[in-house]
Amino acid sequence: MSTNTPVDGPFPIRVNTTPSGCELDVSAFLVRAVFAELVSAADEDPEGLVEELRDMAALQRSAVHQGPDSHARHEYDACMERLVNELADGGTIPVYGAQVGRLAEVLASIAAPRPVPGQRGAA
Question: How far apart are CA 122 and CA 60, in angstroms?
Answer without folding.
Answer: 54
